[in-house]
Amino acid sequence: MAGEPTAGETSNHFGGRAETVIQARDVTYHHHHAPAPPPVPDPHQVPPGTPLFVNRTDDLADLGGWLDPDVGGPPRMALLTGLPGVGKRSTARRWAEDTRGRYPGGELYIDFAELRGPSGGGDLFVALERCLRALGVADRYLPTDLGELVALYRTRTAGRGVLVVLDNVTSPAHVRTLLPAAPGSAVLATSGRRLGELVLDGARLLPLEPLSAHSGARLLTDLCGPERIAAEPEAAARLVEGCGGLPAALHLAAARLLIHRRLTVAALVAELEQESGGLAALALDSANGMSVLLGIACRDLPADALRLYRRLGLLPGRGFDAETAAAADGTDPATARRLLDVLDTASLLEDAMSDRHRLHDLVRRHARDRAESDEPAAEREAALGRIVDHYTVRAAFADRAVMGNRLRITDHEELLTGQEDPFAGPGARDTALDWLEAERADALAVLRAAAAHGLDRRVWQLAESLTALYLHHRHLADWIESGTLGAEAAARTGEQAAEARLRSLLSRPLMDTGDHDRAREELEAATTLADASGHPVLRASVREFAGRYWDRYDPARAVRVYVDSLALNVAADEPRWRASSWAERSSPPATARPVSPP
C-alpha cells in the first residue's frame, strides 16, 4: 500500500565502530558489532644471521639450485648436516636472508632445540601450533588432534609458496610433517644427525665441511680485528689450525680474546694444545663452550655407542678402521661397524666414505676428556694395550706378507698363532704394503704411545715390523724415529738381538739422510750386541750393513766385513746366501750385494 513503511537494511561506520541498521515497518533496530580483524601479515620469522659470515659460496649455490622458488613444482626439502659447530644454522639463515621476499607466503621458523623435552625429541604438536598461529589461525580454532593439526597446516599452506626453516631437527618426521603444500614451497632443515631416510622423500642432503685454513683465518680476523691478529701471526695461524675450521670454535676463541684483553693469542693456543683438558680454552662459562656443544651431540647416543666414542678418544692416531675400533672397544669388528654407523649418523665421524674413519681434532679431544672422566684408569690402560697389540699383530702379518722369510727377531709363531691373517690369499703382498702405507702415521703414533706407557716388548716388535714399509717406501724421518724408539725399548728390556737388529736397520735411513757419524755409531753398537747375542745370522746381517757403510769410506775394510758376513751365513747354513752370485768366492768385490734385502 502506498505510504506504508518498507523493510530495509543499511550500514554505518562511526569512528571505526560498525553499525547495522534494520528497519521493518515502524520498528528500527540498531545492531553494533566489532570491526573485522585486520589482515594477518605474511610471516617473516627466520632470525637474522651473523654479519661475520665467510665462504660457503658453493654450499649456498647448491641450496639455491635445489630450492629455487622460481622453478615451481612440488615442494622441496634440503637438510644441512655436519659436525657440531660447523655452521649449519648460520648457513641456513644466510640463505633465508638471501631469498627473503621470493616466497610469497613468507618464511616460517622453528627451532626444535627449544621444544625438546626430557625425552630428547622435539614436540611436533607445538611446532604445528606455532606455525598455524603465524599463518593467522586463532587459538580457539586450533585442533587438539595431531592429525587434524597436520591437515589444517596443509590447508593453510596450499595457496602460496612458503619457506620453512627448521633448526636442530632430530627426526625425519619433523621435516616431512612441516612440508608446505603449495607448489614452489620449501623446507630447509639443519640437523646434527644424517637423516638419510629423507632421501626416500626426495630430500637433498648437504653435509657441510669445516672451513679452509684461509677462510678460518679470515673469520678470526673479522672477529678480533686485523690489528690483534697481525700482532701475533704465527700464533693466530696455530689457533686457526687448532679450531679445525669450526666456526663455533673460532667464535669462542675470539670471544675469549676480546673479553680478556690481556690474554695473548699465544697463551690461548698454549691452553688449547694441552692434551688433557685443552677444550677448556674454547669456553666462556659452563654453559657456553665446545665441550657443551659436543656434549649435546652425544646426548642421544646409545650407551654402547657412547662407550665406543669415549674409547676412540684414547687412540693415539687420528685415523682408524673397524678392526682398530673393535680393539679399542674390546669388541668384535661387526659390532664396531654397527656402532661406527651410529656415530656417523650423529655427525661425529669424518671420512666415513670408506672403511677408514677419523675424528675431528676437537671431537677427539672431547672423546678423550669423556674417557678420562668416565672410564676407570685400569680400563683406559687396558684399551691402550689392546690397541698396541692389534697394531703389533697386524704389522707382523703385513711384514711377513711383504718380506717373506727374512731375518727377524720377533717370534712370529708365538705372536701370530691363533690370530686371523688379514693378508692371506692372492695379492697379499700388495694388500699388506697398502695397509702399512695407509696406517703409517697412526702406527707411528701408536709406537710413541706404547713407548710412553712402558710397553717396551711391543715397541721393538712393532718397530721391527714397520721396516717392511720403510724398506720399500722409505719414509726416512719416520724410519729414524721408529728405529730409535724400538732400539731404546729393546735396550730397556735387555733384548740384545732385537736391539742389534734395529740399530743395524737404523743405519740405512741415517746414511740416506747424510748422518754418517751416527750411522757408524749405531753399527758399532749393533755389532757388539749381535756378537753378545750369539745369533749367527744376525751377526752376519749386522756385518753386511756395516759393509754398506765402509763401501763409502774404506773399500778394503768393506771387503773384510763382507767376507766375515759370508762366512757366518755359510756356517749358519743361511739359504738366502746359497743363491748369491759371489757366495763361493773367497774375495768378493766390495760393491757386491746379496740378492735380497737383509
TrEMBL record:
The protein, known as: NB-ARC domain-containing protein
Organism per entry: Streptomyces abikoensis
InterPro entries recorded: P-loop_NTPase
Record PANTHER family: HTH-TYPE TRANSCRIPTIONAL REGULATOR RV0890C-RELATED (PTHR47691:SF3), REGULATOR-RELATED (PTHR47691)
Highest taxon in the source lineage: Bacteria
Low complexity bias (residue ranges): 578-590
Spans annotated as Disordered: 31-54, 578-598
Comp. bias (Pro residues): 35-50
Cleavable signal peptide: none
Organism lineage string: Bacteria, Bacillati, Actinomycetota, Actinomycetes, Kitasatosporales
